Structures are given as C-alpha cells and as structure tokens.
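Check out a protein:
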Amino acid sequence: MFVLRRIAEGELEINTCLGIEYVLVMKEKNRENFGELTKLWKEEDLKDVYGLVCFDNTDSIMPLYKNSTYYIMTNSGRTFANISYE
C-alpha cells in the first residue's frame, strides 16, 4: 500500500492513499504521456505542474506542483521515494 504525502505552503500536510500501485509521469522525462494525460486541462491548471501521480488503474490523477514537497510513503510510514521538484 502506498500513500502520497504532500506538504504544501503553510506546512499543510495532505495524505492520499494510492493503493498497491501508482504511475509517476514526469513532464520533462515523459512528455508524450504527460501531454496525453493532460490534453483536456486548461493552461492555468498546468501552471507549476512538473509531474503526475496516477493511481486506481490510472483513473485518478494527482498533479505535482513545484511549490510543494512530495513523498511516496509505505503503509508502515516509511519514505519510499521523495518525488519533490528538483
């Protein structure tokens, strides 16, 4: 089981259950996939988005914003990956 932990401005912490698998699509590394997944989004919706986390068989998409910090956590609370903007 994976959890996406977002720490937004003002130290707001948001945890989203991703289930047993997720797909990480980074804008710079996966331009084609990123474009396909966001083709219906407005330009202002993509401002400061550097990647996407897809889960629930890619039915759910969570945008990753440059001004937040993101961690993929395991069900035991351990950090699996830091996917924050570099």
Q: What stands out?
A: The two ends are 25 Å apart (CA to CA). The chain has one helix and seven strands.
